[in-house]
Each structure stands twice: as C-alpha cells, then as structure tokens.
Write a structure and sequence with these properties.
The structure is a single chain. This protein is an all-alpha fold. It folds into two domains: 1-114; 117-206. It contains eight helices and no strands. The longest helix is centred in the C-terminal third of the chain and has 81 residues, at 158-238. The chain starts with a helix and ends with a helix.
Amino acid sequence: MADATHVNQQITFFRSQIHKRSFDEETVRILELILASKSVESLIGVRSALKQFMRSESPSIVREIAEEPVDRKLICADFLIRVFALIGDAESCLALRYEALVMREHKTATHPGLQVSSKEWQTLAEHMIEKGFYSVANKVCDKALISLKAYQAADSKAEEFLQDVHAIKKIKGLKDAAVLSMSSQSVQAKAAEYLKQKTVEESTQHTITSIGTQFSGSSRFRSGIRKRNFHRLKHSQSL
C-alpha cells in the first residue's frame, strides 16, 4: 500500500514536470523510478496511463516549440523520444525519431552540423521494420540511399567506396524486406476481408435455407392435417 502511494506521488510529480515543460534529466530519472515498480500488474497499468498522458501532451508541446530555435526543438524531441521509449510506446518513439531526422535534414543548409548520416537513416529503418512500420521504413531507406550517394559523390576514396557499396547493398536489402512485408500485409488484409465476406454469405445462405426448410415443413404439416380432416369427413358421410 505504501509502495503504491509512493508511486502515485511520483506520477503526480512527473506530470507536474511535464506541465511545467521541465525537459531535463531529473524528469527522466523520475520516470525511471516510477517504472522500477516491483508489482507487474501495477506496472502495466502505470505504463498505460503514462502512455495516454504523454500522447495527449506531446501535440501541445510540439505546437508550443514551433517557433523555437532548431536546437531547442531537437532538445524537446530528444526528451520525448526518451520518454516514449521508456514507457514502451514504440509507435510514438519511432514517429518522433523520424520527425527529428527530417527536421535536421531541412536545417542542414543553415546548420551543416545537423546533417543526417545514412547510418542514422539505416538504423531507424531497421527499427521500423522490427516494429512492423513497413511503409515508413521504405521511405526511410530511400533517404538513407540518397544520403549515402551524396556522401559518395563528395568523397570517392577506394576503401570508403567499397564500404559504401556494402552499405548500399544492406540498405537495399532492408528496402526489399519492407516492400515484401507491405505486400504480405496487403495479401493478408485481402484474405481476411474475403474470409469475412464469405462467412457472412454462408451465414446468410444458411439462414435462408433454414427459413425455407421451416416453411416447407410447415406447409407439409398443414397439408397432412387437411388430408386427415378430409378422410374423417368422408368416413362420417359413409356412416
């Protein structure tokens, strides 16, 4: 009971830090302490509550920093990425990682130090494929190839060129895996839809047949009664 009360206090403190926009190491450590709870059942509930809270807060945070300098934006993005990674929200974490790299890519002309390497794109593509985000992973692979070829054009030393060729081959392999998985998902979706439609059709046909059988049986039953009454009438008349 005391442990649960302590965790609730930490959650309240963490939420207040987010509301105050305190995106520092202290806030991250608070979250780590919350997630160090020994109770598995409570931890699942805590993660779910924190995920819901951060998903509701992150759009507001992004809007608030829209006019901030790029370094401030990246600090906030890095903080949110770490938080979502800790609470186990892979979708939000990967989405923010992608947005952060795109932001750096757009600012490269005025901030050369922000240039995104092909390795960073490649790593993100690998993680997206692992989590099943194949469509975005396919786009990320394209960015990795563009980045690598641009670097290759700027520096074509023999040893580095061979390394680049190996990297290109690996990125293309990731791209092929993403495209293949996308196709597989599409086939599975179509198969599921077909089976669902077929089940509905079979159920409808069974209902129609069942109703028809009931009507047919009812008709035969009424016909039998009429015949029996007719025979009784003839018998009475003969007497």
